[in-house]
Specification:
Number of strands: 76
Distance between the termini: 41 Å
Radius of gyration: 35 Å
């Protein structure tokens, strides 16, 4: 018999050589609200910027918080196949928050294979229609919000995007991108340093791209060597660049006048053509091109009249067309109809409501009124050129509206169909129209070939431009699903050929929205959740589906819950529900009411293994000696829930916090004039007394406390200069400022007091009011010092209003969030020394930060939510090293976020809520290392 030794050795090695058991994968605990959450026609969500890329259509989806089935706002890039339907989200673009929009989501340009777009912070992204091919490009922001003013352009190769890009290091400078991270680069730092040249008016001109910067016209081929200034327009702000062959026409605005210039890009010769007065409130001129002409619309602010000018590039050839010389109104745009210039205007005492069509024929300098033209109600805003004719919305004298067409002659001008178009476009070789009811029409340009397509198009006139893309012989746009609200639709422009491609709301699962996660010990957790059938209830879980159960007696409203979890004391959790004090140990038998509350219960706290709380007076009659509040205690039994003592205050006691065996709070003295004070109580009337008078407004500050041995430290405003660090032994005599000298250097506005390894840590300002930093104190003036000047998170960067650094001790490391002005908000740590206060890891390289949030100590590690912009906002962990700061699990695979929240350490399990895209927002658990 042959004996094989290697299996034994392998088993022995697996037993002895393996590291300590690591945490297992996070798992869904239970899907408490199964099913789908459909959207409604009244929902305020929207889908926009339909763009064809690689045979598919990408678009933006905006789903605000409050839409049924969504506990958090969502905005992202989606993709749909026009042939087969079905939508997939490619990227999260707002991280669950819509409160800090700087830019609208919109596609900047598309090559057909790649589309460039920005997220809500203005960062440049690219997509090829797949999740893997959708990602941000180097963290650069795209400047310019006004269409046509700062919009990027595709270069001469049709593949490279030129744009004004902004970074912290360079400011706003000209950039280019070929759709790759490596190929996204600044063209040239025109203004060295972080000031930036702020390029605008990017314009394609032959094999070059023109732009304006610093009052000058520049040209670039995309390289630093090939970027040069062509001409400077002295003392002017450049408003328009219009490229025509080797010439560039420039409209420059200066104090009191608008000037048109001609620049020869070959010779560099700059020629002033004409100046027009401007009153500073309305531009004196508009520079445009139509019918192979360079045209100028002039507005005279003195007489309120308009005139039309043209130029051949010479000063003598820059002249007013006419007669007629002037118009009482003249609307933009001016359109090119086979070499003819067509525009809408009125003469005499008319207004824009009485405009008709005018035509400037090729080779002529005199506009003519188009005989037979109807009134033009919106200045040709509703118009398009199709098959050599102009289609537009025309009105009669009674205000009736219809679809009209013209070839620029009286004989070729006629009404096509008796419906009022609010949008006109060309798609799939046909004319398409949206009427005033939001219905979709199509036309071949004849009355007989103009038909109603579908009644479900969701584009009322007030919603702006009809948004669509062509793909696979269909147009994709936003239509109205009667059950699911606005959704992506597709139409082949044949009656009966319009259908919904996807139900975006329908594929989002229902949420139970667990909240108020509270550890019960033994790996269990308590929480509120909505199961979709019986409203909101109180649940307990041991981390398994079988061990997750609803506790009896709590039937709450999901939309307006009344239950409030108050405090955990030992193995019990106390909560307030329907004016009754309850307790629970997480079991049905251990969940029951303790006390009917006669008035409002205030600020409970744990004291000596019991719950201490205060009940308001039943009424507040006028009094000069305050009112009586009742202090109560509870041991978790009805018999043990008893009044402890009454106490008179001049105002509501609040902001309870416990340390060192005492409870500290703020309250007004019952004596006139009711000064606000810091109080302490040991649970008896005799042990309840003030220890410190606060200055006016000091009572509005939270009582932040931390215990170090026998000493208790807290932040309070008791002297001029704002809040500061105090120490107390629980007596007035033993309460003193840590830094008694008000004239000496000191931290200003300290916040976020945290005890760690025998010292206090907090954030405060020093010197420059904007300079925040991390401070350390051993409780003495000499031992209070700044560790590192590094700012707290900025709310705009983390997608919310919370600017807390979330100081979190884990073993011998204190973790926190901070922004050093270079890396954005990222993870930092300190060991209590300046040199040991360092960045742990730059998860998202560059200025934008990883949006990390929810720092939680569990199982000897730090856990938090963050995004590396490859994965969405997911669960991360750190051991304090860069290598050990890693993604725990991509719960919703790809760039879409599962948005982990409410991280809660329950001993053997880390609980949190997340949305995996299949079950909605539910309770999840991560086994922790043993």
């Amino acid at each position: 018999m042959r004996f094989h030794l290697w299996p034994v050795l392998l088993t022995l090695c697996l037993t002895l050589c393996s590291p300590a058991a690591a945490e297992g994968p996070a798992h869904l605990v239970a899907d408490l609200n199964p099913g789908l959450a459909n959207l409604t026609p009244e929902s305020t969500h929207s889908f926009s910027s339909y763009t064809a890329v690689n045979g598919r259509v990408v678009f933006f989806g905006l789903l605000p918080e409050g839409v049924p089935g969504l506990s958090q706002s969502q905005c992202g890039l989606w993709v749909v196949d026009a042939a087969s339907g079905g939508a997939e989200r490619l990227a999260d673009l707002c991280g669950g928050d819509l409160g800090d929009f700087r830019f609208d989501l919109h596609v900047l340009a598309t090559t057909g294979a790649v589309a460039f777009f920005t997220d809500i912070s203005g960062r440049l992204w690219r997509t090829d229609g797949t999740a893997a091919g959708t990602f941000p490009l180097r963290g650069v922001e795209v400047a310019g919000e006004a269409p046509g003013f700062g919009e990027p352009v595709l270069g001469p190769d049709g593949r490279t995007l030129f744009f004004s890009g902004c970074t912290a290091a360079l400011g706003c400078e000209p950039w280019r991108s070929d759709g790759t991270r490596a190929g996204t680069q600044p063209v040239l730092d025109l203004v060295p340093g972080s000031g930036g040249s702020h390029p605008t008016l990017l314009t394609l001109a032959g094999n070059r791209v023109l732009f304006a910067a610093g009052g000058a016209v520049w040209s670039t081929d995309g390289t630093a060597a090939g970027t040069a200034q062509l001409a400077r327009i002295p003392g002017s702000f450049l408003q328009t660049l219009l490229a025509r062959g080797s010439a560039v026409y420039v409209l420059a605005v200066s104090q009191g006048s608008d000037t048109v210039w001609r620049l020869d890009t070959v010779s560099g010769n700059l020629r002033k053509l004409a100046s027009f007065p401007s009153d500073g409130h309305r531009t004196g001129a508009i520079l445009t091109a139509a019918g192979r002409r360079v045209l100028i619309v002039q507005y005279d602010s003195e007489d309120g009249l308009f005139s039309l000018w043209e130029t051949d590039g010479s000063r003598a050839g820059t002249r007013r067309t006419g007669p007629p010389a002037v118009f009482s109104s003249l609307s933009y745009p001016l359109l090119d109809l086979g070499g003819r210039v067509v525009f809408s205007a009125s003469r005499g005492a008319g207004t824009s409501a009485t405009e008709r069509l005018w035509v400037l024929d090729p080779g002529t300098a005199k506009p003519r009124l188009l005989q037979g033209s109807p009134l033009i109600g919106d200045g040709l805003q509703t118009s398009t050129v199709f098959a050599g004719r102009l289609y537009f919305a025309g009105r009669d004298a009674q205000g009736g509206c219809a679809l009209w067409a013209t070839d620029g002659t009286p004989r070729g001008t006629r009404e096509i169909q008796d419906f009022c178009p609010t949008q006109l476009h060309v798609a799939l070789g046909r004319l398409i129209a949206i009427d005033s009811q939001g219905d979709l029409w199509t036309s071949d340009g004849t009355p007989g070939g103009t038909v109603h397509v579908a009644p479900t198009a969701f584009v009322p006139a007030s919603f702006g431009t009809f948004d669509f893309a062509e793909s696979d012989g269909r147009i994709v746009f936003t239509g109205l699903d009667p059950q699911a609200g606005p959704q992506p639709f597709a139409s082949d422009l044949i009656p009966g050929g319009t259908e919904a491609l996807a139900r975006i709301g329908g594929v989002l699962a229902g949420n139970s929205d667990p909240v108020n996660l509270t550890p019960l010990g033994g790996g269990r957790v308590l929480f509120n959740a909505c199961d979709g059938h019986n409203g909101s209830g109180l649940w307990s879980s041991d981390g398994t589906e079988a061990g997750t159960r609803e506790l009896p007696g709590i039937e709450d409203d999901c939309a307006n819950p009344q239950l409030e979890i108050l405090q955990r004391v030992g193995d019990l959790v106390y909560f307030d529900f329907q004016r009754r004090l309850w307790r629970t140990d997480g079991t049905p038998a251990g969940t029951f009411p303790l006390l009917d509350l006669p008035a409002q219960l205030r600020d409970p706290a744990a004291l000596g293994g019991k719950l201490l709380f205060v009940i308001d007076p039943p009424s507040f009659p006028p009094s000069t000696h305050g009112w009586v509040w009742d202090f109560w205690t509870s041991d978790g039994t009805p018999a043990g829930t008893q009044p402890a003592f009454p106490f008179r205050f001049g105002g509501t006691p609040s902001l309870f916090a416990g340390a060192g065996g005492l409870i500290y709070f703020t309250a007004q003295s019952p004596d006139t004039p009711y000064p606000v004070q810091v109080w302490r109580t040991g649970g008896t009337e005799a042990g309840t007394r003030p220890i410190l008078d606060l200055v006016d407004g000091g009572g509005n500050l939270p009582i932040e406390i931390a215990a170090l041995g026998e000493r208790v430290f807290f932040l309070a405003a008791a002297r001029p200069g704002g809040p500061e660090l105090w120490v107390t032994d629980g007596t007035a005599a033993g309460t003193a400022p840590v830094l008694p000298d008000l004239s000496g250097p000191r931290p200003a506005n300290p916040v976020f007091l945290t005890a760690f390894r025998g010292a206090l840590y907090f954030y405060a300002q020093s010197g420059d009011p904007a300079a925040w930093g991390l401070w350390r104190s051993d409780g003495t003036a000499a031992g209070t010092r700044l560790l590192k000047a590094v700012d707290r998170p900025h709310p705009v960067l983390i997608g919310g209003s919370d600017s807390s650094p979330e100081l979190t001790p884990v073993g011998d490391q204190l973790f926190f969030r901070a922004d050093d002005g270079v890396h954005g908000t990222e993870l930092w740590k300190t060991d209590g020394t300046p040199e040991g206060t360092v960045l742990v890891k730059d998860i998202v390289p560059g200025r934008h930060g990883s949006r990390l949030h929810g720092l939680t100590a569990a199982g000897g590690k730090l856990y938090f939510g963050a995004t590396d912009e490859i994965h969405g906002y997911e669960l991360w962990q750190s051991d304090g090293t860069a290598a050990g700061t890693t993604l725990v699990q991509d719960i919703l695979p790809g760039p879409a976020p599962s948005n982990p929240d409410q991280l809660t350490d329950a001993g053997s399990l880390l609980y949190f809520t997340a949305n995996d895209g299949e079950h909605g927002r539910e309770l999840w658990a991560l086994p922790l290392p043993r």
